[in-house]
UniProtKB/TrEMBL annotation:
Protein name: Major facilitator superfamily domain-containing protein 3
Organism: Sinocyclocheilus grahami
Keyword Transmembrane: yes
Membrane topology, from the record: Multi-pass membrane protein
Pfam families: MFS_1
């Protein structure tokens, strides 16, 4: 039964990662190759905005219909969107590309609410939470690698139309799989005893927000998920473009940043799930956040080497790989901590609570990613990376203090069962 849960959740999160891979790896390289400014490239992050808004309609998904219907409807919608996108010519229909990717983000964000609601209720115990969140993060990143690195490498051969036709087939197959998935067969009993009360609350949103904020640990989690990726996100967004300007071609960057580095990220997420079964979350977070700070110091030091050389390329690939490995570790730890917090909430608001935290996480990354390009254009790469390093160090200090006196203190010595 546990394997069925993991396969089901992994597939859902895999297809969620596809729009992100298209926009984070394929689109920036395409625009930079067409000589667009870093500021304009960063502003394309606005296409992620539906992920910020998902908390608005999360109560609707939480309390109306079934999760199976929401999942099948949104995945089928993604398949139709890809079919339409296959007819677009990106060279002359730029706004058509923007519109199709925006539609994909809207549908994927709604699907994410339903998938998170299913995950919160299917996973029980710290062992299942660790494995489930590992599958969540790895599945999402695998989808991102498939769409970003893999499709970037073959788009010149296959073409835009065939690429989206393939994606339409992938989404269509997943929609059929979800329709018949046995892990959702007991869904009708999940909400028994709370349906009437939930229906009243959805008409009184202030009561929902009051319940969300009263869940133990929520205020700390809100600040943490909004800020923990700021410095890291700036570096992950801008360092590959620094390499594109000085050291690597778009094809090399597609391989090293879109495939190899993301493979390290997936490996880090997988290792995170294993470590969660051996050690407490608090102890792991303290050590991994310090490792990330050291990694940022190493990467920032490479900015002073502007002359292309095999040694520089090797050091850059090492930096990218290390950075993504640690980022994968931190993401698994963070999403496990989020789900742990959400499970303290009433069942009638669990998907909404988790979506709320996940929205803040996306908002933090989105807002800073959108500003990072303008920051580099204004002050240059070296000063911008000093700012990124400061933010990364502040996140490590915030986590350290939480394990000493805050909400993570009780998890510092707590061993997994």
């Amino acid at each position: 039964m546990m394997n069925d849960k993991l396969v089901f959740l992994g597939l859902l999160y895999f297809i969620q990662g596809i729009p992100y891979g298209l926009q984070s790896s394929l689109l920036p390289v395409y625009l930079r190759g067409a000589s667009h400014s870093l500021t304009r490239i960063s502003l394309t992050k606005i296409l992620y905005f539906p992920w910020v808004l998902k908390v608005i309609w999360a109560p609707l998904v939480d309390r109306t219909g079934t999760k199976r219907c929401w999942l099948v409807g949104t995945v089928a919608g993604l398949a139709l969107t890809c079919l339409v996108s296959a007819t677009i010519s990106p060279d002359v229909q730029y706004m058509g590309v923007v519109g199709s990717l925006l539609a994909m983000n809207v549908l994927a964000s709604v699907q994410d609410i339903a998938a998170d609601g299913v995950a919160v209720r299917l996973l029980r115990g710290q062992g299942e939470l660790g494995l489930g969140n590992t599958v969540q993060v790895v599945g999402y990143k695998a989808g991102s690698v498939f769409a970003g690195g893999g499709l970037l490498a073959v788009i010149d051969v296959a073409g835009w139309g065939w690429m989206f036709a393939l994606l339409a087939c992938v989404y269509g197959g997943v929609a059929l799989f979800v329709w018949g998935a046995p892990v959702l067969d007991g869904e009708s009993v999940w909400g028994q005893g709370e349906g009437r009360r939930g229906s009243k609350d959805v008409m009184q949103p202030w009561k929902v927000w009051r319940k969300l904020l009263s869940v133990p640990g929520t205020p700390w989690m809100m600040f943490y998920v909004f800020t923990y990726k700021l410095g890291e996100q700036g570096a992950i967004t801008m360092f590959p473009l620094f390499l594109l300007d000085h050291h690597m071609t778009a094809r090399e960057l597609g391989l090293w940043n879109g495939v190899v580095a993301m493979a390290f990220s997936i490996c880090g997420s997988s290792v995170g799930g294993f470590l969660l079964s051996q050690y407490s979350i608090g102890m792991l977070m303290r050590r991994v956040f310090m490792m990330r700070t050291v990694s940022m110091v190493f990467q920032s030091s490479l900015l002073v080497v502007l002359e292309p050389s095999p040694l520089m390329k090797g050091m850059a690939v090492l930096s990218l790989s290390l950075q993504h490995f640690i980022a994968g570790l931190i993401t698994t730890l963070t999403f496990t901590t989020m789900m742990n917090c959400t499970q303290r909430a009433e069942e009638s608001i669990q998907a909404t609570h988790y979506s709320f935290l996940a929205t803040l996480e996306v908002l933090g990354k989105l807002s800073f990613s959108a500003l990072a390009g303008g920051m580099v254009d204004t002050v240059g790469f070296p000063i911008a990376f000093i700012i990124f390093l400061f933010l990364t160090s502040s996140s490590a200090l915030h986590v350290w203090r939480a394990t000493e006196t805050g909400v993570l203190k009780e998890q510092l010595k707590e061993q997994p069962q």
